[in-house]
Amino acid sequence: MNEENRSTGSFGRIVSYFLVAIVASLMTFYSVKSTPAAQKGGSTQGLAKLQELQSLLDQMYIGEIDEGYMMDMAAAGMVEGIEDQWSYYLPESQMQAYHDSMANSYVGIGVTVARLEDGSGFEVQRVEPGSPAQKSGIMPMDVVIGVDGVMVPDVGMDAAIDMVAGEQGTDVKLTVLRDETRMEVVVTRDLVLVEVAYGKMVSDKIGYVHITNFDSRCAQESIAAVESLLEQGAQALIFDVRFNPGGYRHELVKLLDYLLPKGDLFKSVDYRGREDVDVSDASCVDVPMAVLINGDSYSAAEFFAAALKEYDYAVTVGQNTTGKGYFQQLFNLSDGSAVNLSVGKYFTPNGVSLAEVGGLKVDVPVEVDLETAALIYGQMLPEEDDAQLQAAIAALQEKLN
Fold this sequence. Notes:
CATH superfamily of the domain at 197-326 and 344-400: 2-enoyl-CoA Hydratase, Chain A, domain 1
Structural class: alpha+beta
Shape: globular
């Protein structure tokens, strides 16, 4: 987990929304800090090798070199070389998009997309409620094949994404395919506030809370959703954190503190061996619960489910999680870039490392195919067709009877 990290594949949240790709993933539990003064050793021989290579390129390479890009690639390669899937490098050009993502707000059009494998365009998977894209008529399953009259294959994916980025109040014209019908849609870029959590009743006694991520406003919106559902008569709750990439530690702890009784909530050990424990007070929400998870429920999301399960507050439904056991810290570098680096381990309230046990195992396993998973991710699957949701409802109904 990270107090600020994650990743998805979207125009709205990952790319400067529809905008600049963030190589993030998951959650980091601690604050943004500058590069540490003390470092674990250093390789004089390694630095000499890099200097030798740069000198060779400068003197002998026949083409032109974009030195800034080359340095970004070198930095990214160094971080990749530690072979930690949770650590990553962020060039200066992606920092604003990164911070926007963590704030759950950005200037853009408000869609989540997936790149088509053939490079022909981007398929819209989710349209943010109230976003410029929704107001302009963009719908899930639309395929964006052109931007401002330029076809995506002609300029490439990254350039097309950059073209969609722009200032608030300016227009972008998208060429869209919908069921093989081609159309032009003009979208005015604006500030998009991501809906972090929302609730609805899925039966006369069961409320459902969908949590998109654990970044800014997560606890506030999740608690508000729960309280609204309880006022509507909910006697049991389902939390949906499928495809939730994680977020801030303090948002996670605040939500768990609201839900759970007195006791340990979160344990961590950093690279210095320093232990830290967050605890809950006595107040709690005493109703049966279920948590929907899958292999793309990362970090804070899987930890959220694990904590509720260990307190015997919730049954977990869906698919096993991956098991992320490290938390990250963002270190700002002198040129405006940054490194999100794994600096410690975290544990469930019972002291379990999810990494060491291979992730959180569901109580009620329900597999889905890739097509169904894509519909769940885009929040386009009807409730009656969502086998995982229906299994969670059945499990809670059994407890209520």
